[in-house]
Design goal:
The chain is α+β, with helices and mostly antiparallel strands and about 300 residues long. The protein has helices at about 1-25, 30-65, 80-85, 100-110, 115-120, 140-150, 160-205, 205-215, 220-255, 265-295, 295-300; strands spanning about 70, 90-95, 130-135, 155-160. The chain is built from eleven helices and four strands, in the order ααβαβααβαβααααα.
Length: about 300
């Protein structure tokens, strides 16, 4: 008895798979259009996610490399200033750079500017000592900068404010754009898959009527169409991931000399979000086929 049930279940699964692939073969051009819709949608979404990750990685790099710099008067009470600044909730780290250390640093940074170097060598005392402050969050640099400007012993404050604002703005814009893009193009892909499934149902309307007359259940009739939508979504998502990763790797190899920003994205990020993109493709396909089944009169009757 158990053997018979197992064989019956296997036959049902085989039927569902055969019908799904037969539906795809019957309407190749329409199916390709639906797969392309999912591909374009997820290609753009995945590309935007990678661009956002590049912006995030470089923002973190700036967090490590760029600090608010407080230039100190010669008679400043360094220990008191440092202790005070370290107590601020916005500050993660403070370290002191003495005049001799600042002078050596300036010689390295200005090594290719001979005229400036000669001026420094003639009057090394013009290079001030400083406190370098690392914010807990990179966006809090302006709060720290404003507080420093009112402190006794600090005569000047500098930070890469424009660059930091630009990087944060890029991150926020990319996140908003990727979300809006995913919603808009996702709706378009769902509509195209729904249309594809609708055409497949219409082409098989007589077969479906016969199946109902012989007692086939609703899910037995509907499952092949649901599976067809999932397959189309999976194919569109998988091709999108393969193409974008291939183009990214190719582009990364040709731009390896870029030094201003890092274009490297962790392989774990590509794998994790690539898997999510493929899964999202399957979900889009399932929703599209579900919408079609819910609205099509040949299935509902």
């Amino acid at each position: 008895m158990e053997r018979k049930r197992g064989r019956g279940l296997l036959m049902r699964i085989q039927y569902v798979l055969n019908e799904a692939f037969n539906n795809i073969r019957r309407n190749p051009l329409v199916v390709v259009g639906a797969i392309l819709a999912v591909f374009i949608t997820l290609f753009l979404v995945f590309a935007t996610l990678i661009a956002g990750e590049i912006a995030r990685v470089n923002t973190l790099r700036w967090t490590d490399d760029v600090r608010v710099i407080a230039f100190l008067d010669d008679d400043a009470d360094v220990d008191t200033l440092r202790a005070d600044i370290e107590s601020w909730v916005e500050v993660e780290e403070v370290f002191y750079v003495s005049k001799p250390e600042a002078y050596e640093e300036a010689l390295e940074l200005l090594a290719d500017q001979q005229t400036v170097l000669e001026t420094l060598q003639d009057a090394p005392e013009i290079i001030p000592a400083s406190l370098r402050i690392k914010p807990v969050e990179i966006g809090e640099y302006d709060v720290i900068e404003n507080r420093l400007q009112n402190m006794i012993g600090v005569f000047s404050v500098e930070s890469a404010d424009a660059a930091i604002d630009a990087m944060n703005s890029i991150r926020g814009t990319l996140q908003t754009f990727s979300l809006a893009l995913a919603i808009a193009l996702g709706v378009a892909a769902v509509a195209l898959i729904a249309n594809t499934i609708n055409m497949a149902i219409y082409a098989r309307r007589e077969d479906l009527e016969i199946m109902r007359l012989v007692g086939a259940g609703n899910w037995f009739v509907r499952t092949p169409f649901l599976l067809e939508g999932v397959i189309e979504g999976l194919l569109g998502g998988a091709v999108a991931v393969a193409v974008i990763v291939g183009l990214y790797r190719l582009g990364l190899g040709s731009l390896e000399t870029v030094e201003i920003i890092t274009l490297e994205v962790d392989s774990e990020f590509l794998f994790t979000f690539g898997l999510l993109i493929v899964t999202f493709g399957a979900i889009v396909g399932l929703i599209g086929s579900g919408v079609s089944l819910a609205l099509n009169r040949y299935i509902r009757s």
